[in-house]
Amino acid sequence: MTSKESILAAIQANKPDLLPLPEQPEFPYDNNLTEQFRQSLALNGGEAREAKSFNDVTDYLETHFRNSQMIVSLSEKVSGNFDVNMADDPRELEHVELAILEGEWGVAENAAIWLPEEKLHHRALPFIAQHLIVLLKKDRLLGNMHEVYTRINVEGPGYGVFIAGPSKTADIEQSLVIGAHGPRSMTVFLMD
Amino acid sequence: MKAAPTHAAAAAEFLKDSERSHWHDETLWHVRSKRDVSAQKIPEWEQLRTLASQIKDHVLSNLDNLLLQFEKKAQANGIEVLWAKDAQEHNEHVLRILEENQVKQLVKSKSILTEECGLNHFLEDKGYDVVDTDLGERIIQFNKQVPSHIVMPAIHLKKKEIGDIFHEHLGTDAGADDPKYLTEAARQHLRQKFIQAHAAITGVNFGIAETGGFVVCTNEGNADMGTHLADIHIACMGIEKLIPRAADLGVYLRLLARSATGQSITNYTSHFHRPRKGKKMYLILVDNGRTKQLGREDFRNSLKCIRCGACMNTCPIYRRSSGFSYNSTVPGPIGSILSPGMDLNKHSTLPFASTLCGSCSDVCPVKINIHEQLYKWRQVITKEGPPQVSKRWAMRFGGQVMSKPRLFELMGKMARKSLSISPRGFVYNSFNAWGKHRELPEVPKETFKDWYRKNRNHDK
Ligand code: SF4
């Protein structure tokens, strides 16, 4: 017997009678999604800003990232200074200072933003960059996790991730430190 | 396997440093309090717990079919699926993959399963340098320790000690203990390891039967840094980690981080379904005692565990005695019902490391009846084997006395007399396991019965 066969046989011998799988629930949620998202993101160590247009984003970059040598932008409306297509291997992204991505959905209860592989170019990009900016349309905000799973197809992309804040740790005496391995900051622009 | 030191003996060691024990207790209670605040914000919290438990009921009752569905989908998506009966086979699979792909450098993110299988030691014996990349795990790896908590592996260490460890291994300034400074040093050190790694090993939080994919949750982003840079991804998963549908993640992700640390979600929740183009992804499905536990009706529910650690944070025994006192990969209340299933002799004292207060069951997001199972293990152990001879002997003797009212009264009289004149050493000696951690109440001058006889007339 292979290990697979013996494991399956043991399960068949030991499992209880079939119990039903419950239906997926729907729960009501707050209507002020923008405000709730902002608060959730702050608790996770990130910052949400409201933007009327892409000019607001460009202005922000001008003040905060003017001297950055390596900015990768995957948004057509905002320009970076490094073409991600130049990197065949994700290791070449090692010195990316800022990555600008477009989120697909945002979840107000926990600030999780769904980023499927096609929005990342390299899976490593949002992790290896020193800072992260995500642009998200306000009408892409949903209330809770049940909602978002009815909208996305997790299997479609080979990889997809919910990002809800910058890289963080509290492994030293429970003190929160932002910037464990990945981004040292995460700013989300909620676009009109 | 040889019996481990009893939980009580190991706890006594930890309690010698009362200042540390007090600090440990407070730190974990703080985490527990954050969990409460977070849970109270969700009006449907109790409904979510019930759903989470019911979904797992279904999974356990249909595990064989779901695993087959999962494997088929995963294979169709280009993931190589391997099965392992036990820890040894799991470790051998990993080794073979590393050898076949001529991997030299590897990084690993947090996986309690690989800890359970002793993977690091196994690979180190074969000459591999396994780099744990979760900050807490890297700290204890430097310190040659195992995790003392499943979510916060280095919770037993103070920053001063971590500063010393980093000074020795990473060359940070002597005496420096600022968490920000130390984290930055680890960041720089581990970035190099990520860039150099050929293979990345991760655990799995959830496997999705209908899509053949799996989900990994971290706050640091270390699982992603590892897997997206390396050519080979090896994911190690206990067979009970399965859920039927992607939508079930809605239920579990709302519960997991809130129960663990009070966060609404971990900052990264990664869904893996296919390897990167030209790269390889392996998934190892591990039994290692899980199918046996499935067959134990009284203990089956323990397989629902999603490893949030809430039962540890709330446990009055865990908080005061620390994870090491359990001598088991998974410590705390849930460890005390899982580990006896793996090796009853080695872990026979763990079900007794509880006050049976039930706080663990109250916070468990998948509603495992932890304290009831602890009690059931006690019954199994006292019937089958010697937990700790002196406590058992005392219990049997006590049982006889309790069942005979006359004898009980007589023994009581003797005890009141003798305790009041006994030297301490006679009462709190090594034969009296209960005397170790408990002060006896002051001896009453008369029995309740005597008192009642005397006083009932007053009411008339
Ligand atoms: S038993 Fe429950 S509370 Fe304890 S770690 Fe598992 S899921 Fe969390």
From TrEMBL, chain A:
<protein>
    <submittedName>
        <fullName>LUD domain-containing protein</fullName>
    </submittedName>
</protein>
<dbReference type="InterPro" id="IPR024185">
    <property type="entry name" value="FTHF_cligase-like_sf"/>
</dbReference>
<dbReference type="InterPro" id="IPR003741">
    <property type="entry name" value="LUD_dom"/>
</dbReference>
<feature type="domain" description="LUD">
    <location>
        <begin position="91"/>
        <end position="191"/>
    </location>
</feature>
<dbReference type="InterPro" id="IPR037171">
    <property type="entry name" value="NagB/RpiA_transferase-like"/>
</dbReference>
<dbReference type="Pfam" id="PF02589">
    <property type="entry name" value="LUD_dom"/>
</dbReference>
Automatic annotation (TrEMBL), chain B:
<keyword id="KW-0677">Repeat</keyword>
<dbReference type="InterPro" id="IPR024569">
    <property type="entry name" value="LutB_C"/>
</dbReference>
<keyword id="KW-0249">Electron transport</keyword>
<dbReference type="InterPro" id="IPR003741">
    <property type="entry name" value="LUD_dom"/>
</dbReference>
<keyword id="KW-0411">Iron-sulfur</keyword>
<keyword id="KW-0408">Iron</keyword>
<dbReference type="InterPro" id="IPR017896">
    <property type="entry name" value="4Fe4S_Fe-S-bd"/>
</dbReference>
<dbReference type="InterPro" id="IPR037171">
    <property type="entry name" value="NagB/RpiA_transferase-like"/>
</dbReference>
<dbReference type="Pfam" id="PF11870">
    <property type="entry name" value="LutB_C"/>
</dbReference>
<dbReference type="Pfam" id="PF13183">
    <property type="entry name" value="Fer4_8"/>
</dbReference>
<dbReference type="InterPro" id="IPR004452">
    <property type="entry name" value="LutB/LldF"/>
</dbReference>
<keyword id="KW-0813">Transport</keyword>
<dbReference type="InterPro" id="IPR024185">
    <property type="entry name" value="FTHF_cligase-like_sf"/>
</dbReference>
<dbReference type="InterPro" id="IPR009051">
    <property type="entry name" value="Helical_ferredxn"/>
</dbReference>
<protein>
    <submittedName>
        <fullName>Lactate utilization protein B</fullName>
    </submittedName>
</protein>
<keyword id="KW-0004">4Fe-4S</keyword>
<dbReference type="InterPro" id="IPR017900">
    <property type="entry name" value="4Fe4S_Fe_S_CS"/>
</dbReference>
<keyword id="KW-0479">Metal-binding</keyword>
<feature type="domain" description="4Fe-4S ferredoxin-type">
    <location>
        <begin position="295"/>
        <end position="316"/>
    </location>
</feature>
<dbReference type="Pfam" id="PF02589">
    <property type="entry name" value="LUD_dom"/>
</dbReference>
